[in-house]
Amino acid sequence: MPDIVVVYHSGYGHTQRMAQAVADGAGAELLPIDAEGHLPEGGWERLAAADAIIFGSPTYMGSVSWQFKKFADASSKAWYAQAWKDKVAAGFTNSAGMNGDKLATLQTLFTLAMQHGMIWVSQGLMPSNTKAALRNDVNYLGAYSGAMAQSPADAGAQDMLPGDLETARLFGQRVAQVTARFRQA
Ligand SMILES: Cc1cc2nc3c(=O)[nH]c(=O)nc-3n(C[C@H](O)[C@H](O)[C@H](O)COP(=O)(O)O)c2cc1C
């Protein structure tokens, strides 16, 4: 089994639920960034040991949350040591709008991974984009660069749509499969 860590921030629990679905698919450990932008004790060592790191953040004002950005800036220490070079990387986000500029968040996560010399994994699912498409189809949001979920602004984390959570689970599964192939190489 590849060693995969999902490092994420969630202000109100929605991205936390998505992170859990990604981790379920990947067989990964969850590493939450707290309300002050800090990792739990031993978090940096955990990331240094992983084969793959999956980054997750809600989309706030068209980008990652400030807590995730604080973590990203603090990862410059790992960058100096090239500690994450050649690890597999991937990203996911959740926001209230159908679009809501989620792609900008995924691109921020992608750029962070590229700065670290990591290897990015896409969503890898066909979009559900025909007239017959239903909101609970897998990849209804039609993302390619990573996994996306959408939670209406007045919906609690418990109301997250099963289709988006299944999309997240399949995304985690794909990251695990790709990571396993890299470990064999
Ligand atoms: C400060 C702030 C900024 C937000 N900006 C956006 C945004 O740019 N686009 C969007 O679609 N939703 C936006 N939202 C809505 C959140 O993305 C949405 O509520 C999400 O489910 C929160 O995830 P969380 O519970 O993991 O924090 C914003 C919410 C907050 C609190």
From TrEMBL:
It comes from the Bacteria. InterPro entries: Flavodoxin/NO_synth, Flavodoxin_CS, Flavoprotein-like_sf, FMN_Rdtase-like_dom. Residues 4-149 form the Flavodoxin-like domain. Keywords: Flavoprotein, FMN. Its cofactor is FMN. One of its GO terms (molecular function) is NAD(P)H dehydrogenase (quinone) activity. GO terms for cellular component: membrane. This is Flavoprotein WrbA. It comes from Tepidicella xavieri. The lineage of its organism: Bacteria, Pseudomonadati, Pseudomonadota, Betaproteobacteria, Burkholderiales.
